[in-house]
């Protein structure tokens, strides 16, 4: 004799199905909110560029100005890639500007006084930056001193050391080193009219890589049954970003230097750190620590180790920024790096990184850095008083953080 299944099982099954549907809907809604925020940042950049293009009488997007915009703001993008990781993990680093000055001073001394070849001097600078990061990471991760205090001390210590090491400006650096920030790829495949063919080819390769990477990510999400953005929005995103790459490539191909070397460096860093934060265990651990450190500990995350390596990485990227900054100036300067930490932090917050940690993307920080760069260049072309430029950037930062906090409160109440 067959016994009918109790009604409670059916009810439980229905309840479970409803819970799964609710969870899926919540995940989809959260994913759409994040996507809308990211698109909003890109939209804000486009609007700001368009505004200054009109206000400057078309000067902002002149080929050489665009190349200069990238060269002048490469240090912000490099530092922001590391600062995102620091802020997502729930910390802050106030020392990066002073580290840039100190490492840049050692770099200049190594080339001019110690007669090291510039590639060897650059390698020495990277090792020194990583060692500084390890020093600060030790106090933060293993001694337990708050990052704010450790890096505030570092800001004072390394600025003082920079003044001691450099003394007077050390100029006359090797041409090969200076070209890191002032040169670019030009003429390798000839010219199409006034446009550099090699730059155009690299732009097309970048677009192909973007499309293939996004399609592969979408296929992976579908395979795991995870929420995806609507097809129309996905296609629109690819079209808009692809059009921006085409425009940027064409403008740079017409510039005096072609594709700047520092843009290639920044692109590699964005790809590498985007993969690190989004596709690796280490990146997931950083988000877990910033989201809820106690839950991360209970889940088996080695919080001390992760925090230590986050600051080692920040020191390394500060050294990379030092190389770029010193090459751009063509000299070692004790006053280099002033307010660099504020620029990097502002780029992260404008790019959507949460003040409270746990949320942030490298790509968003890069867009934030570009917004800051466009503001700087546009206001400079318009001959706005530097004091007003600082005030305007401060208001933009305040508005970005306030907008993020209001969004969080609205989502929490919903």
UniProtKB/TrEMBL annotation:
Region entry Disordered, spans? 1-29
Regions of biased composition (Low complexity) lie at 10-28
State if Endoplasmic reticulum is listed as a keyword. no
Q: Which UniProt keywords apply?
A: Cell inner membrane, Cell membrane, Membrane, Sugar transport, Transmembrane, Transmembrane helix, Transport
Kindly give the membrane topology term recorded for this protein.
Multi-pass membrane protein
The record lists the membrane-crossing segments as 39-62, 74-92, 99-116, 122-142, 149-171, 191-213, 234-253, 259-276, 362-381
InterPro entries named among the record's database cross-references:
ABC_transp_permease (IPR001851)
Q: Does the keyword Cell membrane apply?
A: yes
Localization recorded for this chain is: Cell membrane
Which NCBIfam families does the annotation name?
GguB (NF040906)
This chain's function reads: Part of the binding-protein-dependent transport system for D-xylose. Probably responsible for the translocation of the substrate across the membrane.
- Specify the protein name: Xylose transport system permease protein XylH
């Amino acid at each position: 004799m067959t016994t009918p299944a109790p009604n409670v099982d059916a009810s439980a099954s229905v309840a479970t199905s409803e819970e799964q549907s609710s969870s899926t809907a919540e995940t989809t809604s959260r994913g759409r909110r994040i996507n809308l925020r990211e698109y909003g940042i890109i939209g804000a950049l486009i609007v700001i560029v368009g505004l200054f293009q009109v206000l400057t009488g078309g000067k902002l997007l002149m080929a050489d100005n665009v190349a200069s915009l990238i060269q002048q703001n490469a240090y912000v993008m490099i530092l922001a890639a590391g600062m995102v990781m620091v802020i997502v993990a729930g910390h802050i680093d106030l020392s990066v500007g002073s580290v840039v000055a100190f490492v840049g001073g050692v770099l200049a001394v190594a080339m001019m006084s110690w007669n090291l070849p510039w590639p060897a001097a650059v390698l020495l600078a990277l090792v020194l930056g990583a060692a500084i990061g390890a020093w600060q990471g030790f106090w933060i991760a293993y001694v337990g001193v708050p990052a704010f205090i450790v890096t505030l001390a570092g800001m004072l210590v390394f600025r003082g050391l920079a003044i001691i090491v450099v003394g007077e400006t050390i100029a006359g650096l090797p041409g090969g080193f200076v070209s890191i920030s002032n040169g670019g790829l030009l003429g390798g495949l000839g010219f199409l009219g006034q446009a550099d063919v090699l730059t155009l080819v690299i732009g097309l390769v970048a677009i192909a890589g973007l499309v293939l990477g996004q399609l592969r990510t979408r296929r992976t999400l579908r395979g795991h049954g995870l929420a995806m953005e609507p097809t129309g929005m996905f296609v629109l995103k690819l079209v808009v970003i692809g059009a921006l790459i085409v425009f940027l490539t064409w403008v740079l191909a017409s510039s005096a230097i072609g594709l700047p070397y520092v843009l290639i460096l920044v692109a590699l860093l964005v790809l590498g750190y985007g993969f690190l934060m989004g596709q690796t265990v280490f990146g997931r651990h950083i988000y877990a620590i910033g989201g809820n450190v106690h839950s991360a500990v209970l889940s088996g995350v080695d919080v001390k180790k992760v925090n230590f390596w986050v600051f080692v990485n920040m020191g390394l990227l500060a050294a990379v920024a030092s190389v770029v900054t010193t090459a751009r100036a063509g000299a070692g300067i004790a006053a280099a790096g002033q307010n660099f930490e504020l620029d990097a932090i502002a780029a992260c917050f404008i790019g959507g990184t949460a003040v409270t940690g746990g949320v942030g993307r490298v790509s968003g920080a890069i867009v934030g850095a570009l917004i800051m760069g466009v503001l700087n260049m546009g206001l400079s072309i318009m001959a706005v008083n530097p004091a007003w430029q600082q005030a305007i950037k401060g208001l933009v930062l305040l508005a970005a953080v306030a907008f993020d906090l209001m969004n969080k409160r609205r989502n929490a109440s919903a």
